[in-house]
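Could you please review the protein record set out just below?
***
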Amino acid sequence: MAISISLSLLLIFFSHFPSSHAEPFIGVNYGQVANNLPPPSETAKLLQSTSIQKVRLYGADPAIIKALAGTGVGIVIGAANGDVPSLAADPNAATQWINSNVLPFYPASKIILITVGNEVLMSNDPNLVNQLLPAMQNVQKALETVSLGGKIKVSTVHAMTVLGNSEPPSSGSFASVYQTGLKGILQFLSDTGSPFAINPYPFFAYQSDPRPETLAFCLFQPNPGRPDVNTGIKYMNMFDAQVDAVHSALKSMGFEKVEIVVAETGWASRGDTNEVGPSVDNAKAYNGNLIAHLRSMVGTPLMPGKSVDTYIFALYDENLKPGPSSERAFGLFKTDLSMAYDVGLAKSSGSSSGNSSSQTPSGKVTSTGWCVPKKGATDEQLQASLDWACGQGIDCGPIQPGGACFEPNNVASHAAFAMNMYFQKSPKNPADCDFSQTATITSQNPSYNSCVYPGGGAGSVGVMNKYVNSDKLERKTNGAVEPKVSFSLSFLLIFMFLILHVDM
């Protein structure tokens, strides 16, 4: 009995601490508008070599669903817009859809969400729009009939144009033309605990406003930021601004507790000569910095402390998609399974879930100092620098949960580590420790405990610097209270006492 209770307490204890291997918020879209894609079995192996935890399909291809069986990868399957009328008109059609596309594969294949239709509200087809909610309801009832209600969620996907206003983010609202139809859908999502799925694309925002400062804002690169005049929050990237605008729109209709899922976002690596924005460098910067931002777990200013589930578009280029060249150039991987460019998704990458996440960095001392944040730099500025630095191929594993430099878990400490790692990797010019004038070179070694900052200089090793000392106080970042390290130690002592007490 004592052993059983002790084991239970052990499980409770470890459930309070995130695994450095778990990144359930990173997903990818698996489009199939192509004639040169690798076999599903090869794609399944590719996904298992990465930190990608979820895959979104636009249909319900049985070969792909079957190939993902036993991988643990979460699968989103979709009912096409053409399926909506029959699903809405006949509950038996919904039952048959579930019987054909879910039951033969679940639970070996981890189906987690069914999207009914894609951007239906933007179709300008009033009949289809009116049929969307009944179709979703019938699919939900079909799931409940086979005891899968709640285990598999039901939603639909929207384009950002569903918003009538998105600036500033705190004033986000749905376009009046969609509000009537959305009210029933949002009530359904709230009642069933299903997410609101949206497709934010800073890529398209930049194409409509191709200024240099807009590009930096879209790519998570250092920039002056954009203040929200209502809240005083300064936004340092377009992704957060767009997601928070959706949150505000949901709040304005009384559904702020409905979870948001980013069903699509990405950046094209090439395009036509008249297209603004597509390039390998920009695609690598956006996707790499987005992944680093999600891994930081900082969240958005209006939803701090939790990363929004995000499906990057796309796994592969789709060579048969119509439209400009950029439409066929969103792939993270080539169809020969090699990376189109490296954004740190490989499990062997230090910035993902590889073993290096729990190690301190080591290396040759080649510089005469360390790069750290300047006094007075704001959390917003430091978060932007952190996201950018971790997107440049440096090893940010040690500041991930479980890493040697994760604690203290605050923006200043994590930014200090990332800034210095980038500086040490660079030619060590003073300009490499600028970060939009938020960083400076110091001769005092910022290393502490088992967290070692590579570099060199006259400073003593192991100095408890201001970033470490700050863990003695609760800090707030965009309204989120960050945990004290001492709480973890206290919890451990209490846990050990309980086990000893129970065993006695």
Q: What stands out?
A: The chain has 15 helices and 18 strands.
